[in-house]
């Protein structure tokens, strides 16, 4: 809001005694060329106000007697420091790199430096659902220390405990990539879309907590983490190379974390103890939120950019080609999931565990197709993309 | 013929290097080849301009008036800062010194800046004489700091304010800009120091050149100079350092009081 004329009562304040704290905000509210009347009973103001106006390029118009020992000074607001008022109500379609870290809608003085943000288009970065997802994330935070019944972990058969350690090691390694990938985009996001950065920050907090609980569970018996396979490493490395935010959301959240929802449901279902079941359940609820954001992001971006379909498809193909020659789920993970589902190493139970593992792969494929369809892909595209998805799950 | 403008400026502060390197880069990018040479004092800079060693000199009012006089008025004035127009000097006093009018300065201690400072010495004393103050009856305390810099550093003006605050002087002469900026910065106790008198306005710095400056250089210089904009982030930083919002065309009438003061 701006005004054409404003009056302030400066009492007996001098320029150096606090008058500026009344004068400057009043001038900011004025339109350029608007006039400010300053009532003053200070003798020095008459001498100093004109000099101050000269320094700040406002125009001192003069003074008149206002009676009772009061003088009315008139100041015309200059055109420098004229401020651009942002529209506060909605996110800008395209953000201005010169507004920097100024909160969206604030009055931004001209002449500031240009910031190196390059995610500047609302429809490519900020789905409308993000505010609600952020609120859900804040409400859904939990404690790795307090909310998992750690004391209930019994002494399992060594083969089963080893399987648990291997599954937890694998989960932690994948979650580390999910911690790092979003961080690469926060620094590039224009602060006008800070809601997205804030959501990604909750995602990173979630991943931190997951890494914490998975490693606590892996080390529950005092043993170190198990094997990290080259397949997993290669798969996660290829995620870090993605530079496009929508592509990264697609690969990490829609496909990777989407697939992890089914994996975590599996881990909860076959959990050998209450603590392991609870940490899988809690992690899956968090991951569902990340998948929801990824889907919203990709769906919203696809609605505004037809060419994104082919780019996403191409990025899945590119990633598949870097993983070519990798056959199937990393062996240590495959074996561990089988023993985990079997609940031990007794051969008949292992057969059932192996069936459960194969069933998991089918469930994951179906889940990916369902999510891809919901993002707007055709059945054919969805099936092809799901087939090309990394055998590492993430 | 070399069309690169060589500009002279006085290195009164390390920031002068930043300012002129920035302006040089901007000039060169905007199609006006320019470089600069720094001098340690205005006397040397004026002589170098008159000798043709530099094309343009960024001069204080005192240096500008000397160039005008030495060229019999033929020198070219090319531009000035908005802040160079309507400069004033102030006589500020301690509130406990018992000085209510200029006549009360008689018998009191008056701190003044360097003898080559237009705003803190030459013109305030000139205007006090015009107002009927007999300077022989005033104890003048001079702060001749940074001689040769013509008061650019502001050091002698800060010396004046310190002398007032410490009670080593009853009154002091300073420029109006430093007075309002020191107040805005909260460095002045308004209960102890106040303004007694504000001089009539006068103008400050000017870009000076000899009449032999080529039209190409003159036009290139003013075109690039006046195209600098406050809302351009690169320009704004330089303008802030140099203490202006906008470059202005030259005008000569603002130097009449200084010419008169130097003739006294």
Would you give an account of this structure?
The complex is a heterodimer of chains A (394) and B (264). Chain A is of the alpha+beta class. Helices cover 57% and strands 9% of the residues of chain A. Chain A is elongated, with a radius of gyration of 30 Å. Chain A starts with a strand and ends in a 6-residue tail after the last helix. By secondary structure, chain B is α/β, with parallel strands linked by helices. Chain B has helices spanning 15-29, 42-50, 61-70, 118-130, 155-166, 176-184, 215-226, 233-242, 256-263; strands at 5-10, 34-39, 56-59, 76-81, 89-94, 109-112, 139-142, 171-175, 193-198, 206-209, 247-248. In chain B, the strands form two sheets. In chain B, strands 2-1-3-10-4-11 form a six-stranded mixed β-sheet, with helices on both faces. The termini of chain B are far apart. At the A-B interface, helix 2 of A face helix 6 and strand 9 of B.
CATH-defined superfamily of the largest domain in chain A: Ribonucleotide Reductase, subunit A
> How many individual helices of chain B?
9
Strand content of chain A: 5-15%
Low-confidence stretches of chain B at least 5 residues in length (pLDDT < 50)? none
Average pLDDT of chain A, rounded to a whole number, is 93
Oligomer: heterodimer
Number of domains of chain A: 2
Record field, number of beta strands of chain A: 6
H and E order of chain A: EHEHEEEEHHHHHHHHHHH
Main sheet record of chain A: 4 strands, mixed
How many helices of chain A? The count is 13
CATH-defined architecture of the largest domain in chain A: Orthogonal Bundle
CATH topology assignment of the largest domain in chain B: D-Maltodextrin-Binding Protein, domain 2
């Amino acid at each position: 809001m701006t005004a054409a004329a404003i009056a302030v009562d400066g009492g007996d304040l001098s320029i150096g005694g606090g008058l500026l704290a009344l004068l400057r905000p009043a001038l900011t509210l004025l339109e350029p060329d608007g006039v400010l009347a300053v009532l003053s009973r200070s003798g020095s103001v008459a001498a100093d106000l004109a000099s101050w106006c000269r320094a700040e390029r406002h125009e001192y118009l003069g003074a008149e007697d206002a009676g009772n020992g009061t003088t009315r000074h008139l100041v015309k607001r200059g055109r420098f420091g004229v401020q651009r008022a942002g529209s506060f109500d909605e996110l800008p379609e395209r953000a201005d790199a010169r507004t920097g870290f100024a909160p969206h809608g604030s009055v931004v003085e001209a002449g500031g430096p240009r910031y190196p943000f390059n995610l500047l288009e609302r429809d490519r970065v900020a789905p409308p659902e993000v505010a609600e997802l952020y609120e859900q994330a804040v409400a859904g935070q939990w404690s790795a220390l307090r909310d998992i019944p750690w004391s209930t972990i019994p002494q399992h058969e060594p083969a089963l405990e080893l399987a648990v350690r291997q599954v937890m090691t694998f989960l932690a390694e994948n979650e580390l990539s999910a911690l790092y990938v979003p961080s690469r985009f926060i620094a590039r996001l224009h602060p006008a879309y800070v809601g997205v950065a804030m959501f990604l920050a909750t995602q990173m907090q979630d991943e931190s907590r997951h890494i914490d609980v998975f490693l606590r569970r892996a080390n529950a018996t005092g043993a170190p983490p198990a094997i990290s396979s080259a397949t997993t490493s290669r798969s996660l490395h290829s995620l870090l190379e993605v530079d496009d935010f929508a592509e990264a959301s697609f690969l990490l959240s829609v496909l990777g974390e989407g697939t992890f929802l089914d994996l975590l449901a599996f881990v909860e279902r076959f959990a050998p103890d209450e603590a392991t079941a609870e940490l899988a359940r809690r992690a899956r609820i968090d991951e569902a939120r990340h998948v929801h954001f990824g889907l919203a992001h990709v769906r919203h971006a696809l609605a505004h950019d037809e060419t994104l379909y082919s780019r996403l498809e191409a990025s899945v193909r590119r990633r598949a080609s870097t993983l070519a020659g990798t056959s199937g789920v990393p062996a240590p993970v495959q074996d561990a999931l089988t023993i985990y589902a079997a609940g031990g190493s007794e051969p008949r139970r292992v057969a059932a565990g192996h069936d459960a593992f194969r069933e998991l792969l089918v469930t994951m494929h179906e889940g990916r197709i369902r999510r891809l369809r919901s993002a707007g892909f055709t059945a054919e595209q969805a099936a092809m993309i799901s087939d090309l998805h990394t055998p590492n799950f993430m | 013929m070399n069309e690169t403008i060589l500009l002279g400026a006085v290195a009164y502060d390390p920031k002068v290097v930043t300012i002129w390197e920035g302006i040089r880069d901007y000039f060169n990018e905007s199609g006006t080849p320019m470089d600069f040479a720094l001098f340690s004092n205005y006397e040397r800079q004026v002589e170098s301009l008159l000798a043709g060693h530099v094309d343009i000199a960024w001069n204080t009012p005192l240096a500008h008036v000397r160039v005008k006089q030495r060229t019999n008025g033929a020198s070219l004035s090319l531009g000035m800062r908005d802040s160079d127009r309507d400069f004033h000097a102030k006589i500020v006093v301690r509130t406990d010194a018992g000085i209510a009018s200029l006549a009360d300065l008689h018998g009191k201690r008056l701190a003044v800046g360097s003898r080559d400072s237009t705003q803190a010495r030459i013109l305030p004393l000139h205007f006090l004489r015009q107002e009927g103050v007999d300077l022989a009856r005033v104890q003048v305390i001079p702060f001749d700091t940074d001689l040769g810099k013509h008061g650019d550093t502001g050091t002698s003006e800060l010396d004046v304010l310190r002398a007032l605050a410490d009670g080593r002087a009853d009154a002091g002469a300073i420029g109006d800009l430093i007075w309002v900026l020191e107040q805005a910065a909260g460095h002045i106790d308004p209960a102890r120091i106040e303004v007694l008198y504000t001089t009539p306005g006068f103008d400050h710095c000017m870009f000076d050149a000899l009449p032999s400056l080529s039209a190409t250089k003159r036009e290139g210089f003013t075109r690039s100079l006046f195209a600098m904009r406050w809302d351009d982030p690169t320009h704004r930083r330089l303008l802030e350092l140099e203490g202006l919002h906008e470059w202005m065309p030259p005008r000569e009438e603002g130097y009449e009081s200084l010419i008169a003061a130097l003739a006294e």
